Amino acid sequence: MILQDRVVLITGGARRIGRAIAMALAQRGAHIVCSYHHSAGEAATTVKTLERYGASAAAMQADLTQATEIQRLMDRIHRRYSRLDVLVNNAAVFDRVPFERLTERDWDRALDTNVKGPFLCSLHASRLMRQRREGKIINLADWAGVRPYRDYLPYCVSKAGVIGLTKALAKELAPHIQVNAIAPGPILPPEGMTRHARARIAARPLLKRWGTPRDIANAVVFLIEGTDFMTGSVIFVDGGQLIA
């Protein structure tokens, strides 16, 4: 699939890794829709930046844990573009909660945002894609979906769910829609992380450094333009963290 004039929805596309993905795809001529929940100001700034590349861009607000809001989001995309070619399920929450303090609310927040949201977006997006008998869905998983770490139990379980969702969707939507996942390692430090903590994490992967959002964006471009013969796969962009 060539990105020129394709319509791409990136959930959580207003900031951080989502913004890097949006920039990379806009540079290749795609029309970008960035969904956001609370980041209205950042979304508006991102859209202005994307428009400099000559492709149209739009920021659309939606709570991705609510089916009615996702349906409304897809309806807006259809009215504006009459199509949807690519969905990048990037939006997620990453909450540190020690096991002893975990609550049902913590569990629901992680699973609703990180698994239910991508499922509902994929369900509704696939209906638009099937009209043209082609499409690509790319889910952002995490290496911790395979090797969980302490104090992030709901998050790690949710990302394992994303990997399972990717494989199940690939079977359901074949042969016309390809579904793959990218599992990042240490790419972008959480806001407020200390320099000491960043250095400690950088020492863990085999490559002994942090990756960058551009590394994830490049993997997204590959899954869209680089091959049409992958589905149900997970690409680990983790500097060797998984096997370290």
What can you see in these coordinates?
This protein has 244 residues and is an alpha/beta fold. It has one domain (7-237): NAD(P)-binding Rossmann-like Domain (Rossmann fold, 3-Layer(aba) Sandwich), CATH 3.40.50. Helices cover 45% and strands 16% of the residues. It has seven helices and seven strands. The protein has helices spanning 16-27, 40-51, 67-81, 104-132, 153-173, 195-202, 213-226; strands spanning 7-11, 31-36, 57-61, 86-89, 135-140, 177-184, 234-237. The protein has a seven-stranded parallel sheet with strand order 3-2-1-4-5-6-7, with helices on both faces. It starts with 6 loop residues before the first strand and ends in a 7-residue tail after the last strand.
Sequence stretches where pLDDT stays below 50 over 5 or more residues: none
**So what's the oligomer here?**
single chain
CATH topology: Rossmann fold
> Can you identify the CATH class?
Alpha Beta
Distance between the termini: 34 Å
The share of residues in helices is 40-55%
The number of helical runs is 7
Q: Count of DSSP E strands? A: 7
Q: How large is the radius of gyration?
A: 17 Å
The share of residues in extended strands comes to 15-25%
The SSE string, one letter per element, is: EHEHEHEHEHEHHE
